[in-house]
Amino acid sequence: MGIHAYITGDRVKLYFDREEQSLTSEFDYKLGEQLLNFIWLPIDKIILLYNELVGLYTKDFTADSTIDEIVNSELFAIKEGEVADKIDNYCCYLHFYTQKLLLFFYAYTELKDDKVAMRDIIDRFISGELGHIKDAVKISSSYANEDDLIIRSLLSKMFNLCMGKHSFEVQKKVFNLAVQLIVISIVSIRNMINDELDLMMNEENIPEGLSPLQKLCYHDLKRPNPYYIDRNFNTVLKQYPKVYSDSYDEDNIEEIDSIVNNESTIVPMYPIELLDDLITLETYRLFANETIIRKCKYCGHYFIPENRSDSDYCNRIKEDETKPCNVVGPKRIYDLKKKNDPITKAHHKAYNRMRAKLRRESITQTEFCNWSDMATKKREECKEGKIIFDKYQEWLDKDKIQ
Q: What pLDDT is attached to residue 108?
């Protein structure tokens, strides 16, 4: 792929060459932001976006229009670019899967009647980011797990459809199978990243005083095959900021002017061929920069605090919620604890009962405050094990005024 990554401070800049199937020429984001968003994204939303892309290729055509004619039209290219760009902007990590899907669509549409070519097209589709899917095919059935068997079933259906007689309905089925394999791959990679972060964030069974980068090295050296150590990253000297001319100029006038006017310079960039390259590079730089990463107490996903480094909640919107975790999270967690914790539940019930007495003027404000202070004290003693729950409940039931 024609992508280069430039990391400076806590910013990542991705530059896309002209041949990339994307209207976006570059992405600029905070280090770790897209990586952590990638493992948080709702899968249902990802499926909807890719189904929208598939819909461009599987819409009902008129009797006078063939698939090839519409796919090769200028209007189709614009619509395709807009949808692909929408996916990229949702999370730039999805760009790698979007490109793989688009290449498969184009190759299938062009060579659908060439059975020999179709074998190679499918093989290229399940390489790279979908490499683990290719590995699942190699595992013997006696060792295959449930996910492997699902992958084999999907690939078998795709292969049989591609080797059979082509029709519009067949194309729909083939492209839908391609999306299912893409989603399986995304889930697998997300789980891998999340497991890696869990390992790094776990302070148990590791020597004290290690820096984040030393922890990364410590865990990596304990693997059968280190993932980070001896990882090779080439660098390419590129102009920065990148100047995009509308047309090729053999004298590079615009590029030269940007240098003369001190608007750009030359910096080392990392060529990114696979998503794995970007994941590895960004993870390494996160720990090298000693970036603070926390796990949201409400949605359970990792995030980088924006203001306070000890923030317990992220600013994303959890599924089935309309407001961010940092807005609704504290109350949701409190309600959950109250529901699941018999001590808190008993205290809250008695508190409401005493408040009702206060409203009816059965007790004075002073009596209520004295009771509340004592109830809170006894609640904490109960949580610490100094008094048993039955004794605390007995005291609450008496509505004893101290």
A: 86
